[in-house]
Amino acid sequence: MIGDRSFAPLGDAQLNWRFNGSSNSIATIIKHIAGNSISRWTDFLKSDGEKAWRDRDSEFEDGVISKIDLIILWEKGWKCLFDAINSLTDDDLLRTVYIRNEPHTVMEAINRQLSHLPYHIGQIIYIAKMQQGGNFKSLTIPKGESKNFNAIKFNAGKDDSTNTIV
Fold it and tell me: Which residues on adjacent β-strands are paired with residue 105?
């Protein structure tokens, strides 16, 4: 959700901008996240997570891609991941799956993805913040607002139905 919100205000040029020649653009990172997720989670319990058809190196090649195409790719990667996870049963969690021919329990594979994705989403947010400069709107609790935020949350009482990102 914060990844989506971070690049929502950006246009094509901003999404394809790189700080320097060795940096990745938001577009490149989205291509990589989607490529990784689609490879890992397609036929998750049946085939190696690094598919022969994936061309990881091409995910990092420069080229202008439109915001619309990026969002379609972004959503495709997330849908593949969530569809695979939602189909799992409790009995599946200790099954063995392979990523690059290395064995992982299903839980280990999920944890591996849970460390990989936030790493890259943090990069996206940082680049989006650079692109927007002073117009960047905080995606979580704004600087200097922690006390106010906590006062509101703790004075409201317990509510297990909220999904606030902090």
Answer: 96
Is the pLDDT at 151 greater than 60, yes or no?
yes
Distance from C-alpha of 28 to C-alpha of 17, rounded to nearest angstrom: 10
The DSSP annotation for 22-64 comes to: TSPPHHHHHHHHHHHHHHHHTTTTTS-SS-TT--HHHHTS---
* Mean pLDDT for the chain overall: 93
- For the purposes of burial, counting CB atoms within 10 Å of the CB of 91, is it exposed (0-12), middle (13-18) or buried (19 or more)? exposed
Residue owning tokens 């940082």: 126
Tens-place pLDDT, residues 100-119: 999 999 999 999 999 999 99
CA dist list (Å): 129 to 19, 61, 96, 134: 12, 23, 40, 8
